[in-house]
């Protein structure tokens, strides 16, 4: 691909994106985020100052891709290449808004959709016990078709090990199953074609199937699992010892979501139907016997938490129809209780959110910012930061009960895109870690991908894409 051809194509696609972006965006910025995280985001997704000064054009407008490429070729920045922030500035302009292209359709509700860390694999889990692993590099060919065992209600969560050799999956049972996804067999029938090892999170004295697991995650080193459960607890499972190493009675209601704060594995974030986010430090938990801190602000239960990966910031999706951004340095030692702020008669599983509650703000809200527009009803809808490598985590995105996918600008709060295709709630969605592609999974059984430019063709293999992007944006 010649440099001139690439210049022309990027110019055309940039113009197309501007048109799409203006049509997709609804509403003005929700807030002006004046916090350290706003500056960090700009540093990771803004072009070099010298590139912004190069050539004609207004200084307050986004720097065009052609202008940046010309500045790089002329070594205007003095580096002769793009920095990671330069690359993020370019790639974050190309939102995955075109499409969709159908990946798969099943006669069952889709609950989970996740890319692997390198983007080569994609996992989708369905209510009828099916878990499918697609090889993205091979044109979305099914690499593993897993029939789950010990199922109760649905597959609530899955997690792929860091080495991508094993997958764990959970349901409304204390048994989490682990299957070898690196084996040669495509069809994995539990304990018939392959062994699905059962990891028992119960203590053995609480009635067996007395609780279910909503959320499960591998640690960065692959040696542990952390899980949130319907018995108001957080569990840590030691895979080498093959037993739970820690149980924390963490909340006063279901723990819908847990995750490690960073690669160290010391800090754990949890969110519950009791409306609270909590931070747990395993290094001092046994001595303290309580969380390191509590963050108050949601008016209803929390459905999902995603960490920024730096041990400081995370976002949470709430049944109060808002995503909130948190800085754990604002946490307090205990929650601030506001009697009567919740409606005991409202049930998100079958009722719409009360209109009169939409303008209520928690008087002790410790969050940095809130993002509204999507709807969180019927199921535990998930939200995420956009990828660090391609966008500098410049965006937040989420599924929605109204069958859409919403993308918000982290700093301004503006909705920059709304993806509409599905006919039922979108519980989960996943943004490729390096390529402008997003995949959504819905209760209508559909798994669809959104891309830029989204021409409907299968993407190039990851390794080839990576070489092309690095060649022209480094």
From TrEMBL:
Ranges of the WD repeats in the UniProt entry: 206-247, 248-281, 295-336, 419-451
Cytoplasm recorded as keyword: no
Tagged with keyword Nucleotide-binding: no
InterPro entries: DCAF (IPR051859), DCAF11/LEC14B (IPR017399), WD40/YVTN_repeat-like_dom_sf (IPR015943), WD40_PAC1 (IPR020472), WD40_repeat_dom_sf (IPR036322), WD40_rpt (IPR001680)
Alphabetic keyword roster: Repeat, WD repeat
Any one GO CC term of the record: Cul4-RING E3 ubiquitin ligase complex
BP GO terms, sorted: proteasome-mediated ubiquitin-dependent protein catabolic process
Entries under Gene3D superfamilies matching the protein: YVTN repeat-like/Quinoprotein amine dehydrogenase
Family: Belongs to the WD repeat LEC14B family.
Protein name: LEC14B homolog
Biological source species: Prunus avium
Origin organism lineage: Eukaryota, Viridiplantae, Streptophyta, Embryophyta, Tracheophyta
